[in-house]
Structure formats: C-alpha cells, structure tokens
Model the fold of this input.
Amino acid sequence: MKKILINSLIMIFVIILGFSFKSGVAKKGHDKTGSPLSNGKCFNCHKAGKFGVSLEMKMFEDSTEVENYEPGHRYKLKFHIKHTGNPSKYGFQLTALNQDNKSAGKFENIPSGFALRKLKGVDYIDHTSPRSLEFLNVDWVAPDSNLGDVTVYFGGIAANGNEGTSGDGGAVNSFKIAEGASSSKDIEALSSGDLFVLNGNPAFGVIILDNLKYSDFTYRIISRDGRIIRKSKFENQKSNTAIINISNLNNGLYFIQVISGKEITSKSFVVLGK
Done:
C-alpha cells in the first residue's frame, strides 16, 4: 500500500512538473540548455521514450550560410529538432553567451509562441506554449567588436503531448561563432589608429611589430576569409617591438590586428616559405 502511495505521489509530481514547464523553463528560473549556467538539461526531466532527438543550428546572413559573425551585423539563427518517431509537440530554449558567460548580442523579432526572458541577467529565448513545429528561426544582432567567440547553447524537446514528462525525448547542443569579418576590405577598414609598423612581410616564420604605441595590447591573426585563428595579449612590454611566431601558418594572405582600448590597427601580411 505504501509503495502504491509513493508511486502515485511521484506520478502527480511529474504531471505537475509537466504543466509548470509547458510555458517555458526560464520563467521558472531554469536554464536547461546545457550551458555553463545550466542547472540541468531538458532531457533530465523529459526522459527518452519513443523519440530519439538531435539538434541542429545554422546561421545565415541574408541567404548565405555563415559560421563567423561580423560585429553589429544581423543574422538569422535557424534551429531544427531532428527526431525519430512521431511526436506531436516541441519545445525550445536557447541563449548566446560570450567567453565570460554573459549575454552576447541581442535577440530580435521573437516569433509568436516564444518570449525573451532574463534569468540572472542573461537573455533566453523560451517557448510560451508547446509547439507543433520542429523548427525555430530567430534574429540575432551580433555584439560590438573585440568580444571574441560567442557560443549559442540550445535545448529541444520532442514530446508526446500527454502533459507529462515521460515518454518524450530531449537533447542539448551548442554552436560556436567566431568573431570575424566578411571580406578583406572589411578587415582592413577596422583601423582607428596607427598602433604599430609591420616588418617581416612577406613572412618567413615570424612577423615583427615595430614602433608599438602602447606596452599593453591584444593582437589577433585573421585568415583571409575572416576567421580569427589566434588571439593573445602582450602586457607590460619593455620594448616597442614584439616578435610573433607564425611558423604554424600555411602559406597565404593573413591580417594582423593590434587592439588597445578603443584603438585598433589592421595590416595584411603574406606567409611564404612552407
């Protein structure tokens, strides 16, 4: 009798939990995306039943699929809950975080059936009711420059619609977006000062930054297609010259950016000799 009572109480709790989260989990103070801020994952409650679930995200600028962001540009993030079986309802939660685990960029044009919610100062997109579609498209405006990589963390549910959490399926995933620029012209335009003179170009193993304006600065090496392939700091330089080893780079065109405060200088260089 006692065992039956305990099982009944567990079932009632599961049903209540299902009803409480049907309008979104951020509203109840939960991050279930698998991010570093998570207090669990969506599939911890919506235990796998009939549905196998995997998640996919793609990013588009206009009609072109991209993997890097250019500061301040608008992108379309497209999410898809892939599944086996025949679920009747779906749920989503997502957030975009910088390397300090704070909100990165801005979500706009939130689709019907979703809400922008804050949880401990971080922005989340959360469903407000069970969805009949396995897709979600949302606009994201990239943050200002010099923020570095952004990671989108997202969780998804495929549910049987029984108002509980059993017999469902869930998954979490993440998508890292590197800061970049869309073209060589854009990269070279990112200059607001003359912070250094570039020597050793064409480069054979090293490049030399001479006449450095500041002793503390960050530098980034960027590929021709806008990918940030290295980022590092120099602090308390005693010389106004810095030597950077680029022996691991393949032959081709690259850019070196030096950033100090709000000033930034970009210069191109060519790697030869491999």
Summary: DSSP finds three helices and 18 strands in the chain. The radius of gyration is 24 Å.
